[in-house]
Amino acid sequence: MQRGTAPDGYYPPSYGNGTYKGKVASVDDGTQSVSLVYDNGHKTENFTGQLQGPCDVPTKNEQPMRAADIPVGTDLTVYYMSSTRKVGGKKQAQNSIFAVTFNSFLGRAIPDKDKKIYYCPQGQYLQFRAH
Predict the structure, then answer these.
(1) Across the 131 residues of the chain, what is the mean pLDDT of every consecutive 10-residue run?
(2) Rg of the Cα trace of the chain?
């Protein structure tokens, strides 16, 4: 299932509990966008969102993870908040990703017991609440 709900935990106060699971189709380091695709053989759905900030995922260079650090093909679950804004007089949906969970990395599945939620806070660390 591509759309889901987050497990119990601590999340931003305005979080609506939405998640999206899919394979990374593309990343854009300039906009910090991550595009996911979900294909179950009968239908294909796409999701695009922007990381709120660098994620607290350990990296080789010991810097926070940016969009470009996520390999295409990675099975990823994103935790996001949606909003709309007017652009040129038309409403445009915007998905803001504040956390990610890797379901696979470099083609290797990650067992459920080893999966972690990595936060991608914007500016000061986000204030979280139990969900």
Answers:
(1) 68 79 95 93 91 87 89 94 83 89 92 92 53 39
(2) 15
Whether pTM exceeds 0.85: no
Structural domain includes residue 38 = yes
Please enumerate in sequence order all residues whose Cβ is within 8 A of that of 93, keeping only pairs 6 or more positions apart, or say none: 82, 83, 84
Taking the C-alpha atoms of residue 52 and residue 111, their distance in angstroms, rounded to an integer, is: 26
The answer to whether residue 88 is domain-embedded is yes
- Identify the CATH number of the domain in which residue 59 sits: 2.40.50
Domain span including residue 32: 3-125
Question: Does 116 map to a domain?
Answer: yes
